[in-house]
Amino acid sequence: MYTDGMRKAFHAVQPPKGFGVDIIDNEHFLTIKLDELKFARMTHFEKVEALQYVVRLKDALEQNGAIVLVTREAVNK
After folding, report:
1. Largest CA distance in the chain
2. What span, in angstroms and rounded, lies between the C-alpha atoms of 1 and 67?
3. Measured between alpha carbons, how far is 24 from 30 in angstroms, rounded to an integer?
4. pLDDT (tens digit, 9 = 90+) per residue, 2-48?
5. How many CB atoms lie within 10 A of CB 4?
6. What's the burial of 61, exposed, middle or buried (CB within 10 Å: 0-12/13-18/19+)?
7. Ranges assigned E (strand) in 1-77
8. How confident is the model at residue 76 (pLDDT cuts 50, 70, 90)?
């Protein structure tokens, strides 16, 4: 399901410095998976930037025909 158009859209959206996500192709939908450990260590401002990036990325993928789920794994404390 992850098409060339979706790949181009993914790479067109620039992530904040030091932040990235994984894209998982689940055949009928894509998952944007956040690294919760990195996210938990960010400042408030960095978290806002990261979430704005995820929203822009999700929108770019949906504009190219993807159904998108955003997820993260819980941090064990």
Report:
1. 39
2. 10
3. 6
4. 999 999 999 999 999 989 999 999 999 999 999 888 888 999 999 99
5. 8
6. buried
7. 21-25, 30-34, 68-72
8. confident
Length of the chain (residues): 77
- State the pLDDT at residue 5: 95
User: Residue range 38-66: average pLDDT?
Assistant: 96
Q: Identify whether the C-beta of residue 32 lies closer than 8 Å to the C-beta of residue 68.
A: yes
Record the tokens describing residue 16, joined without a space: 């904040």
Count CB neighbours of 66 within 10 A.
23
Q: What is the pLDDT of residue 77?
A: 60
State the Cα–Cα distance between residues 28 and 35, nearest whole angstrom.
Answer: 23
Do 54 and 32 meet the contact criterion of CB atoms below 8 Å apart? yes
**DSSP code for 64:** T
